[in-house]
Design goal:
It contains 15 helices and 26 strands. It has 535 residues and is α+β, with helices and mostly antiparallel strands. It has a domain of 177 residues. The radius of gyration is 23 Å and the shape is globular.
C-alpha cells in the first residue's frame, strides 16, 4: 500500500514538534531563565521531567545535557534551512553559545556520560561512581553549529578535549575520562604541536582506549581542521583512527575495540584475560581483541558510520577514513555476521565466534554461567551497510545490506543494484534507521522504490512514535526526548522527496540516550548523581 501522506506532512510533524519544544522545553527552572533546553518533557505536565535524588534532603532537579541534544540541534538547523525561518536555528545557536560561555571547566563542557548541568541550581552534576569526569562516547557533536556560535570557544573546547584526555602523545594513549575538576593542572600547549612516534599496539597503559571515545576525539579534530582551515588537527585525527586499523588480525582483518591493555586501579589486569584467559588458553585473549555483539555494532554502525560520513564531508582528504570503515564492514560481515540467522556474533578478532560460550568466571563480560549471546542485526546496521555500499560500490556490502533488510522483514532490495527491489510496503517497523538506509540506497541507485518504502516507515513513525505534537519513547511512558532520531529521520525523508537533501545536516551516527531520572524518581537511570561537585 502506498503512503497517503504527502511530503509536507513529514515536515509539518517535525515543525510542530519543534514549535512545542520552543514553547515548553526551555529553561525556566533556575533563578533566571536561560536559553538552555531540558532533556526530557513530561507530556502530562508539559514541563521538564524532574529527577528526585535518593537523598531526601536534596530537592527535585531538572537536567540539561547538551551532549544528548546534538541531534535535536541538527534538526533545528535543518528546519531553518528548509523553511527559511531563523527561529529554529537561532534557538540552537543561543543554547550552544550559552553553554560554551557558561557550562565550562578546564576548557571542557559539563556534558556527556558522567557530567550534566542542573538547571535548578545553575550548577554541574556528576555521576557518583565516576567523579568529576568528562566523557563522550559516539556523541559526535554538531561542531558546525558550535563553530558558528563561537569559533574561538569551539576551538578551545576541542583542544582541551585532546589535551586532557590524551595521556601519552608519543603513542596516543588516551583515557575515556577527562577531569572536570577546577583544581587540575591543564596543559596550555597547542595539542597539534606534540610529537608522535607510534609504536606497537596492545601496550600496557593507564587508559581504556575505547573506539567510541577514540572516534569522538578523531571526529572533533577532523572537524576543527575543516572549520578552521588548520591542517594539523586532521593529521592527529587520522593518526588516532589508524591506531585501531593497527589492531587488525592479519588473518581475518578484524580490528579491535581498543588498542591498549589497561592496568586498572587496584592492580587488576586486563579484564578479558582475567575472565577468560584460562578458559580460552589456546587463543590470545585480551580485552582489545574480545568484542561482544554490542561492541561489534558500535564499531560498524556508530564509529564506522561516523568515519564514513566524515570521509564524505572531508572529500579527498577523508578518503582513507572512509576506506578504513568500509574495510571493517567487510571483515565483520564475513566473520561476525550470520546471514542465515541475521545475527551478529561476539568475537575474538582471530575469528573465533563466542556465541554460546559459558563464562567460568564472573567479570566485565558477564556473570559466570550465563552464555555469551549473539544479537540481531538491526536497522542501524542496515543503514551502515547501505551507506558503505553507496560510498564504496562494494557488492559484498550490498549483499549484507540485503540480508539485514530481509532479516528485519523490510523486504528485498534486490540481488544487485540494477534489480527491481521488492520492499515490503506493509512493513510495520517504525525504526528511523530504515529511513536512513533506504535514502542511502536511493542515492546509490536512483530507484524511487526505496523512497516509497521510506515513506512507509515514515507513516509508521507518525502513528507509533507520536503523542500529539511530540515524539515519544513508548506509549506507556508519556515523556518526550528532545534528542529523538525519529524527527530527524522524517526531516531527511522530506528533504529526499523534495530533492533538497543537501539542505539538511548529516546524520553521522551519534545519538545519546538522555540522562534524566526514572519517572518514579527513586534513582538515576544508571547511577546516582551528585550535585555538590564532589565524588
Amino acid at each position: 500500500m502506498k503512503s497517503s501522506h504527502t511530503p509536507d506532512r513529514y515536515l509539518q510533524a517535525v515543525r510542530s514538534f519543534a514549535d512545542r519544544i520552543l514553547e515548553c522545553g526551555r529553561d525556566v527552572y533556575g533563578k533566571e531563565p536561560t536559553p538552555l533546553f531540558v532533556d526530557v518533557l513530561d507530556l502530562e505536565m508539559r514541563q521538564a521531567v524532574k529527577w528526585r535524588p535518593a537523598d531526601p534532603k536534596v530537592g527535585e532537579r531538572v537536567l540539561s545535557n547538551q551532549a544528548y541534544q546534538q541531534v535535536f540541534f541538527r534538526m533545528l538547523d535543518g528546519l531553518t534551512r528548509l523553511t527559511g525561518e531563523e527561529i529554529y536555528k537561532q534557538a540552537a545557536i543561543d543554547a550552544t553559545r550559552y553553554a560554551l560561555k557558561n557550562l565550562r571547566s578546564n576548557g571542557l563542557i559539563y556534558w556527556g556520560g558522567h557530567a550534566t548541568w542542573d538547571l535548578t541550581a545553575g550548577a554541574p552534576g556528576f555521576a557518583a561512581m565516576k567523579g568529576t569526569q568528562h566523557e563522550l562516547k559516539c556523541v559526535f557533536p554538531y561542531y558546525e553549529l558550535m563553530h558558528e556560535a563561537d569559533a574561538d570557544e569551539t576551538q578551545r573546547y576541542i583542544e582541551a578535549f585532546w589535551n586532557i584526555h590524551v595521556i601519552e602523545w608519543l603513542n596516543l594513549e588516551f583515557s575515556r575520562h577527562g577531569s572536570l575538576g577546577k583544581d587540575e593542572q591543564v596543559p596550555t600547549t597547542v595539542p597539534w604541536d606534540n610529537t608522535y612516534k607510534g609504536g606497537p599496539v596492545f601496550f600496557v597503559g593507564k587508559g581504556l582506549t575505547f573506539i567510541n571515545t577514540g572516534t569522538d576525539l578523531s571526529y572533533a579534530a577532523a572537524m576543527l581542521s575543516r572549520l578552521s582551515g588548520d591542517p594539523r588537527p586532521l593529521v592527529w585525527a587520522k593518526r588516532l583512527a589508524h591506531r585501531y586499523v593497527e589492531t587488525r588480525n592479519v588473518q581475518t582483518d578484524l580490528g579491535g575495540y581498543q588498542f591498549s591493555i589497561s592496568q586498572l586501579p587496584g592492580g587488576r589486569g586486563d579484564r578479558a584475560r582475567d575472565q577468560f584467559g584460562d578458559q580460552l588458553r589456546t587463543h590470545y585473549v585480551i580485552e582489545p581483541v574480545f568484542l561482544n555483539s554490542r561492541q561489534v555494532r558500535t564499531v560498524l554502525a556508530s564509529a564506522g558510520a561516523c568515519k564514513m560520513k566524515l570521509g564524505e564531508i572531508l572529500g579527498e582528504e577523508g578518503r582513507d577514513l572512509c576506506q578504513w570503515a568500509v574495510e571493517d564492514l567487510v571483515a565483520y560481515g564475513k566473520h561476525s555476521y550470520d546471514e542465515a540467522d541475521n545475527v551478529v556474533h561476539p568475537m575474538l578478532t582471530d575469528g573465533l565466534r563466542l556465541t554460546g560460550l559459558v563464562p567460568e568466571k564472573s567479570g566485565y563480560f558477564g556473570p559466570a554461567g550465563k552464555p555469551l549471546a549473539a544479537a540481531p542485526a538491526d536497522p542501524a546496521l542496515f543503514w551502515a551497510y547501505a551507506l558503505g555500499y553507496r560510498l564504496s560500490g562494494d557488492p559484498f556490502l550490498w549483499r549484507i545490506a540485503r540480508s539485514i533488510a530481509r532479516g528485519n522483514d523490510l523486504g528485498d532490495i534486490g540481488a544487485s543494484p540494477g534489480d527491481t527491489p521488492s520492499m515490503d510496503l506493509s512493513c510495520e517497523s517504525s525504526d528511523a534507521h530504515c529511513i536512513f538506509g533506504a535514502i542511502e540506497l536511493h542515492r546509490a541507485t536512483g530507484n524511487p522504490a526505496f523512497l516509497e518504502f521510506a515513506q512507509r516507515i515514515g507513516d509508521s513513525i507518525l502513528v507509533e512514535c507520536r503523542q500529539g505534537d511530540f515524539f515519544v519513547s513508548g506509549r506507556n511512558r508519556p515523556v518526550a526526548r528532545l534528542d529523538n532520531i525519529e524527527s530527524f529521520a522524517l526531516l531527511h525523508l522530506y528533504a529526499a522527496l523534495r530533492d533538497k537533501t543537501d539542505r539538511v545536516p548529516d546524520h553521522v551516527g551519534g545519538f545519546g540516550t538522555y540522562w534524566g531520572g526514572r519517572r518514579d524518581g527513586k534513582r538515576e537511570r544508571r547511577q546516582e548523581i551528585l550535585f555538590d561537585g564532589t565524588a
